[in-house]
Amino acid sequence: MSPLTxxxxxxxxxxxxxxxxxxxxxxxxxxxxxxxxxxxxxAFLGLLALGVLSMQIVISGRHRWFAESLSFDNILQFxxxxxxxxxxxxxxxxxxxIATRPxxxxxxxxxDETPRAMTLILLLAATLLLVASSLWRxxxxxxxxxxxxxxxxxxxxxxxxxxxHALMVQHYTAGVITxxxxxxxxxxxxxxxxxxxxxxxxxxxxxxxRVVDNRQELGDAATLTLEADGDHQLKxxxxxxxxxxxxxxxxxxxxxxxxxxxxxxxxxxIAFTAKRLGDFTDTLPDVKPGTRAFIEGPYxxxxxxxxxxxxxxxxxxxxxxxxxxxxxxxxxxxxTQVPLWLLYANKTWDEATFREELVELEKALPxxxxxxxxxxxxxxxxxxxxxxxALVRRRLPADDGRREYLICGPGPLMNAAEKALLSxxxxxxxIYSDRFDIx
Amino acid sequence: xxxxYARHAGTVIAGLLVLIVLLVALAVAx
Lengths: 439, 30
Prior knowledge:
The complex is a heterodimer of chains A (439) and B (30).
Chain A: H1 3-19, H2 21-28, H3 37-59, H4 72-100, H5 114-135, H6 144-169, H7 176-204, E1 208-217, E2 221-228, E3 241-246, E4 255-259, E5 269-275, E6 292-299, E7 312-317, H8 321-334, E8 340-346, H9 355-364, E9 367-373, E10 383-384, H10 389-395, E11 404-409, H11 411-423, E12 431-435
Parallel strand pairs in A: 7-8, 7-11, 8-9, 9-10, 11-12
Antiparallel strand pairs in A: 1-2, 1-6, 2-5, 3-4, 3-6
Chain B: H1 3-28
């Protein structure tokens, strides 16, 4: 079993224990009255929903101690799945309860205890909106910034409302000690939410940065270079990303994650590149030098093993090249001699951001760059089409059981690349994926 | 770890948790 698998199993086990805490607390002081299987199962589904929802706040809170080595991408994938699970639990809880005892429909009847019924209906609707707006943000026409604000607010409402409901029902929470323990168990994730969204930003206000250069790149992208406005520094590993806020205050909805493109060898100046995607990124080409910025991070574990003499295969799609540029620039600065292959997919040759610098990097590193163009001009001589198994078999060396694979790009490319790599025998534990368009 | 594992981990854990809850309910129910 690889250390990574062991770590993943440890965190999965820890997660299961944590989400079961509300249930354990409730069972610790069991009421004397014994109810039917449906009633108990329904109540326990509700307590489990409370545990899962409160842990959602912890796992997405960018806490360094929490499963950092499993990569932010994996944690977000997990957060997405468990979010859907939480919604199913929240919906199943009243369905099972009411199916068992139809008279419990009174909990949702506004004619009977209007405030309670309205709160519970709102809680159900808020949970539904919480998950649906995340799964279909763009279909809802929600900007990323407003989605983030909505997600945070709804999470707070759903978890605190769920706790209030559990305490007021009183069947399993009648005792003062049980109630207090349950409050503490739910309050910890809520405090962590405040820490990540408020206190952390407050501390960051004393560590400003300043934009010193804004450069246009191929592929409708812009590179912003930042320098510390003070004597602070940021150390990061190539392939990691930061949350960046541009403007005079760190308190802004406009906080966005960006992979570094600069070499990790230089901690005084950092740079990130973004493509115009019809949202916040459209404003980046107009950012003037001198603009203030606030940086939180680094995050992510999309970091190659620089000591592996087996080398690494890097696969980028479009602007997914950014973390890979940071990796290549860092390896160049370190004078690495490990073999590297880069499969770089773009729609057209003119959209291949950093293509000129990649020529220079090929001279400085034991690197082979293979451009793959999906919509090429007639005179294009290189690889065309999409990244698939045939291309991977044709252009990459056979897997030697040790080589690492790093992929960054849009979802369909990543799915195709992962499938192709698995087919040539690459172990899943040596494939690192970095999805930048999860929400 | 491949993200596919993370996705499956969510589903497997969800299944296990529901099973645990059902077993506890069976033990507690009168």
